[in-house]
Automatic annotation (TrEMBL):
The gene is EPHX4. Belongs to the AB hydrolase superfamily. Epoxide hydrolase family. The keyword Nucleotidyltransferase does not apply. This is Epoxide hydrolase 4. InterPro entries: AB_hydrolase_1, AB_hydrolase_fold, Epox_hydrolase-like. One of its GO terms (molecular function) is epoxide hydrolase activity. It comes from Athene cunicularia (Burrowing owl). Keywords: Hydrolase.
Amino acid sequence: MPGSALSGMLACSRLNWHILNIDSGLRFHYVAAGERGKPLMLLLHGFPEFWYSWRHQLREFKSEYRVVALDLRGYGETDAPSHKEYYKLDCLITDIKDILESLGYNKCVLIGHDWGGMIAWLVAICYPEMVTKLIVVNFPHPSVFTEYILRHPSQLIKSGYYFFFQMPWFPEFMFTVNDFKVLKSLFTSQATGIGRKGCRLTAEDIEAYLYVFSQPGALTGPINHYRNIFSCLPLQHHEVIMPTLLLWGERDAFMEVEMAEITRIYVKNHFRLTILSEASHWLQQDQPDIVNKLIWTFLKEETTRKRE
């Protein structure tokens, strides 16, 4: 079991650690809370994160859902194919479909943050029958992202790491320099981290992240996700047809907030956007109580709408 923070978290919160085999032959690690048989809530983390970024939501939603937080392909305890070709968006989308089926479900509430938000949007577009409700945290509709970045140099600069990650081996090396200073600063620095009014990461939280990403080769899989992005965009299909909630931290250092409102164009169903003015990119960790309340409101609101 990885790290004292992780093992303590699992024990105290009655979370269960699982390995799942899917049709591709890959083994996926996930942590689950809530009874089997309840509706499925599937959580997809961003970069550089893993299932632990959803710890507050695992505890919150287990009363009414079977909550499953994955380690995405290449992350944490999940298998990490060595070649970057195995990290194309098509593969990542199919992973989610296969995981859903392997868990014994045919539909879910799908929630994604950051890069996991990108995957969530694409799953909702490609397999709409599998997503009853879509919730995305700090990532716009992929078509908005690709169109906006080409027209706004300021966003191009903020997304410069997408281009930096195209280099072999050097990005991984940079993350390890000076005892993983870059990794720690992403979550804690004034420029990119959780602010003074947020729920800052504890020393134990940082320990959990360092444990996972300091394992041999642990950064290559996550960065390989980005090494294929330019072969998969722009999209051929765009429309999202299920009720959608987009949550956004306005202090996001990587994504300009203007993209959030433009996303409305591509959602052909009920669309709710909430922007939190004091929150960072790491929204579900930064403001967990507010995020959880907004998610509950959206889920119950849509249930009410269906009954009317």
